[in-house]
Design brief:
8 helices
């Protein structure tokens, strides 16, 4: 942002915030989740350094799952925006299997929300069968811990699982899960749009909203008065945010990039 405001000699290029990566893996999605965890999930690969950037993406190999991510920055009217795309493409497996994959990865939207999927309500290892139908849907889960129990607006059913906004930071999201019958593939796509503000100091409001997770907040574990103070701040946040604004500006204005 210093470079944007004061010239090239005052900071690094905005391109340093741009990234693109992809990874392919064969997953045993037919295995029951109660006895199997995805130790080779994309989140593990990113920390181990195997998740390497790629400039071009070749056709997906048969029976493999491809995970890809892309992050693009832009500056509009003196504020920094980050647009991110996360995709999963793979074989046309049953709903129970794609739901298990989404649950194992839990794609993050921001510090406060993540995408989840409803899993079957029974396990064959328990030798129990549920009479209830399988709930075939995505939903948005809160990452704010115990705050989710006291904030009515943070309950998952309040969120649109396809398009919406976080109530605690300037983040908008679009989620899609589609079947490509012709290619016999599942396509999961999560797009997020983050407004980080002018980023002049760590105390800038939008930056502070974006980075806060409240797990270390005084009110979370502290006294009743501290908790009430934190809760009051949380409940008033959504009034200060322009829901959908980051998405509109991302697509509606030309970027100012240096």
């Amino acid at each position: 942002m210093n470079r944007h405001f004061y010239g090239a000699s005052h900071g690094i290029s905005l391109q340093s915030l741009q990234s693109s990566a992809s990874y392919e893996e064969k997953l045993a999605l037919s295995k029951c989740q109660c006895r199997y965890s995805f130790g080779s999930s994309p989140s593990c690969k990113t920390t181990s350094g195997i998740f390497q950037p790629t400039l071009t993406i070749s056709p997906r190999k048969k029976d493999l799952w491809r995970f890809s991510s892309q992050s693009t920055p832009k500056i509009v009217d003196g504020s920094l925006y980050i647009g991110r795309i996360f995709t999963m493409v793979g074989p046309l497996v049953r709903w129970e299997q794609i739901a298990r994959l989404i649950e194992s990865v839990r794609p993050g939207i921001c510090q406060h929300l993540e995408c989840a999927a409803s899993l079957p309500r029974f396990c064959r290892h328990d030798r129990q069968a549920s009479k209830k139908p399988v709930d075939r849907r995505l939903y948005i889960a809160s990452l704010t811990g115990r705050w989710g129990d006291v904030l009515e607006d943070l309950r998952s059913e309040k969120f649109n699982p396809e398009k919406g906004s976080c109530l605690l930071c300037a983040t908008d999201y679009d989620i899609s899960l589609e079947q490509d019958i012709n290619e016999k593939e599942w396509h999961f796509t999560l797009r997020t749009y983050h407004c980080l503000g002018p980023c002049r100091t760590p105390n800038d409001q939008l930056w502070a909203y974006f980075t806060s997770d409240f797990q270390d907040a005084h009110g979370f574990w502290g006294t009743s008065s501290e908790r009430n103070s934190e809760l009051e701040e949380l409940q008033s946040r959504h009034l200060k945010l322009d829901h959908g604004g980051a998405r509109r500006i991302w697509y509606g204005k030309d970027e100012s990039r240096i």
